[in-house]
């Protein structure tokens, strides 16, 4: 449901800015939005965004939004960054995922299968991706680690990074993976299967 997704108050597509409802915005409206404090915003490149490329956190300081790298968020900066860009409100993650690394948006990724023999949708595989730095992303290509999650929501004994190195605990917060259970696994699996059921053309979805 939409209430569980982050708000997207500003979009930029092929030279045109849009509001949350995809209504075109004038240059004055865009400038007014960017000069108003709407809380922390996360900027995302929408094309060629593999590996968390182009994900940036902006905070409101001194009447304008500034990135963690010190870049001012302006219409010109957005246009130079990508021809497809969006700004979303910063997500607040649950206590379970935040305990590993509160700075990054740690995510569970699920693979679902529509069984050809009875059309039932099931979860084949689940992993928990966890960031290991002060950055926003949990992507393994940016140093993140990945732990398997079994059908009961239990984490595996170790997590791996991009180079297949094993970790029995988080490299920075030193929280041990073995024995921990993702508290919302059943709800996540149910939601993933329900969404996958709406895509009948594809039997395997990630």
Give your account of this protein's structure.
The protein is α+β, with helices and mostly antiparallel strands. The protein is built from four helices and twelve strands. The chain has helices at 27-34, 75-81, 95-98, 185-196; strands spanning 10-13, 16-18, 41-45, 56-61, 64-67, 84-89, 107-114, 121-130, 145-149, 155-160, 166-167, 204-205. A six-stranded antiparallel β-sheet has the order 2-1-6-3-4-5, with helices on one face. Strands 11-10-9-8-7-12 form a six-stranded antiparallel β-sheet. The radius of gyration is 19 Å and the shape is globular. The mean pLDDT is 91.
Descriptive keywords:
206 residues; six-stranded antiparallel β-sheet; 4 helices
Task: Tell me the radius of gyration.
Answer: 19 Å
**Estimated helix fraction:** 10-25%
Low-confidence stretches are none
Biggest sheet, spatial arrangement of strands: 2-1-6-3-4-5
Q: Treating each run of at least 4 consecutive H or I residues as one helix, how many helices?
A: 4
Query: Globular, elongated, flat, extended or rod-shaped: what is the shape?
Result: globular
Report how far the terminal alpha carbons are from each other: 19 Å
Q: Tell me the β content.
A: 25-35%
Order of helices and strands: EEHEEEHEHEEEEEHE
Classification by helices and strands: alpha+beta
Mean pLDDT: 91
Give the number of DSSP strands: 12
Report the major sheet.
6 strands, antiparallel
